[in-house]
Amino acid sequence: MARDYSLEYNLQYELEFRDLMLDIAKDFIRLPREKTFEYMWHCLKLIGNYFQVDRAFFCGIDKGYPQTCRLVEWCNNGIPPGWSRTGIIPPLLIKWWVTNNRDNIVIVDDVDKIPAKQKVKSILQTQGIKSILTLVLHEGTKIIGFIGLVTVKNLKRWPRHYSYLLNIARKIFLSAFAKSESEKIMYNERDLLSVTINSIQDGVISVNNEDLSIEIFNKGAEKITGYKKEEVLGKKLAEVLNLYNAEQIAIPMEEYLNPEKSENCNNEYRLLASNGSFKFISFTVSPAVFALEKPRTVIVIKDITESKKAEEEIKYLSYFDKLTGLYNRTYFEKQLAEIDKERNLPLSIIMADCNGLKIVNDAFGHDEGDRLLVHTARVLQRACCQEDIVARIGGDEFAIILPKVDQEAAYVVFQRIKEYCAEEKSLVVVPSLAMGIATKTSPDEDINRILKKAEDRMYSAKLSENKSTRSSVVLSLRKTLEERTHETEEHASRLRVLSTELGKRMGLNDSFLTELSLLAHLHDIGKIATPDSILNKPGKLTEEEWAIMKKHSEAGYRIAASSPELAFIADYILSHHERWDGTGYPEQLKHYQIPLQSRIIAVVDAYDAMTNPRVYKKLMTKEEALAELERCAGTQFDPAIVKTFVEMMREMQ
User: Fold this and answer.
1) What's the average model confidence in pLDDT over 353-365?
2) Does 444 share its domain with 346?
């Protein structure tokens, strides 16, 4: 029958192993140095029989590693020798142990499952090995050897607790391999039970059953409770372990301490730590069945605070939208099914879609788009009652369940949402929602059909409002830009007049002139995404600031492209800072690769900038500005357009 080495349930076998190791350690200390490796075979036999394996080995690495090593191997009755036949373990396998150990342990439950491309598989199979556990031995940072357990008859799963026990053996073998340190190591770690217990992260407390005084208090218990061992040894258990249940009712620890039987207390409890904070714990209580003068009880405490937090977070995320804090689609659908009862009739549903989210994302980035969604969520919550269910069920879609609310009352909520949206002034665009309402009034009506009806009405509203909504969003962006920069309506008006007049001089048709007029109004709309500190900086921009400024053409392109009514001027916005000689941005177009509309706006915009006040540029006279245009013709500007524009302006003067 397989042994159970779980400390949480029984420490008896650890104590047996401790006694075994203490006996071995004492013999090692008395042995002459030349007998050390001879006696190791006897030690491996004891360990091999203890763990019920077929072979056990010790490999001590010499200075010539990995070419040479000192090997001792024990084989159970009827088991053929392995590496002891050659007296050396292949260097490739030693390197594999060194590079693949985890916490100084290499565990292979099934050699056949090692990938075929790894040569160590064939090395192990040649020895007939089915399962192997290897412990890496360190002296400081230097690897000096290995202890291994091997099965050749059957597969064996290696419980994780074997590592704790082998770590005890590791100390003994290290002392044998460096005998001059034996006495020091043995005196420093005389009580191997304490070493074992203190290596466990869980809290281990042993109490005297007669008076429930604490006799053992490991480092795990110190970390969990906040008390030091020196503070609590000899104290009553109730003075240290203050437990509370989910209802915040104190739980007397004594009721779990029954020396006649083991009691598993895997429910969750709240432990009051020494600093006054609470931690979530579970614990097990077991009698100490090993031979002691007085009966003891061992309590093993597990800190589950982090796992509890993770559980709560998973639970939260399963029902809530992380961005807005509203309920998510999963919770919405669950509640819709539960609320769909006759007692909740009439039952109204409002479906809502956030307008302009794509434009905001394109112009300002997704952080600003997220802000729009968060503020929209607040508007919906503010407009609804506490018993209403408000959820974000998609990227830009929201849904509201209104129990015991008829169509007329739902329309009041609808209007309230619109009013609250208009009050939101802190965003770059005012929140706007396309909404649809549907109400279930009869128990015979299918709630899913009501939901579909509200959704259809929402999409219908979005379709009918789409053009005006997009236009209002763009106009809102333009208005915001005017408030932040020198890009005033007067500037846009001057550009429209001059660009359309120039277009007429060039013989362009009415459709072309309409494009010029709209481009004059929106060519710099992308600056809405540029920080104020850069837009209104009076001095020269740094290279980093200039790189940010140059992105406004692309931002303007994305804004225009997202609106069907403006998409036809998107390319012109993108190219209005290209230069005739190909040194402009963002695509370094040159000559006639640059759209004509962009070339015209570039000339007119430059003239207006030179002849009207700007924070970053000295004002020029009209003649000085025209002279500057002529100077830059053929490099920055299309020379033919400059020629026509200069002639037009001088005639107008």
Assistant:
1) 83
2) yes
